[in-house]
Design brief:
alpha/beta; three-stranded antiparallel sheet; 6 strands; about 15% strand
């Protein structure tokens, strides 16, 4: 199906230059380096879904996109949980899967496609800002950007303090939206 999408984008591009537009594809479990190159040449990005971690306990079954292959290719990429239209999902469960390849049944199902902790967090934040056309307003802490941030309950980047299994238990200790505190675990507000 993805080959058909890329073929169609390329056909349209022969008549109308779409390379300056922000095209994207979602859910790419069977993408190849060739398709990634073709997408990148069209100005298309890839939104990877990490929600498939709940779909299989069989390590032979593809349960999501080849995260490492896509990130290493250099195409514009972001990660989503694909559930916010149903119910808010804890991103830390997805990040656990991205960084370990261990699914919700505690089985390794992601081959050698894991990402580093830094990559996973960056793709959930700054990586997604491109897809929203808001990279000048969100995704990183910089002067002039919206003051939305969280202070975490533990040091995600320190695997000694937060071993892999503890990633799923990380919570927001403090949440700031538009420069205002909207959640403070210390005060219970």
């Amino acid at each position: 199906a993805l080959t058909q999408v890329v073929d169609a984008y390329e056909a349209v591009n022969k008549e109308f230059d779409i390379t300056k537009l922000r095209w994207m594809v979602h859910h790419v479990p069977e993408v190849t380096p060739d398709l990634l190159t073709r997408l990148k040449n069209l100005g298309c990005g890839v939104q990877m879904g990490a929600f498939r971690r709940v779909t299989s306990s069989d390590p032979k079954v593809i349960v999501g996109p080849p995260f490492r292959t896509i990130v290493d290719h250099g195409i514009q990429v972001g990660i989503h949980g694909d559930g916010v239209h149903i119910a808010p999902l804890n991103p830390w469960a997805h990040i656990y899967f991205l960084t370990t390849g261990i699914n919700s049944f505690r089985a390794p199902v992601d081959g050698n496609q894991q990402l580093t902790r830094e990559e996973a967090l960056r793709l959930f934040t700054r990586g997604n800002s491109w897809f929203l056309r808001m990279e000048d307003r969100i995704g990183s802490i910089e002067t002039g950007k919206l003051a939305d941030l969280v202070v975490l309950s533990d040091d995600y980047f320190d695997p000694k303090r937060v071993p892999d299994d503890a990633i799923r238990k990380i919570k927001s200790a403090l949440t700031v939206v538009d420069g205002k505190v909207v959640h403070d675990a210390m005060t219970g507000k």
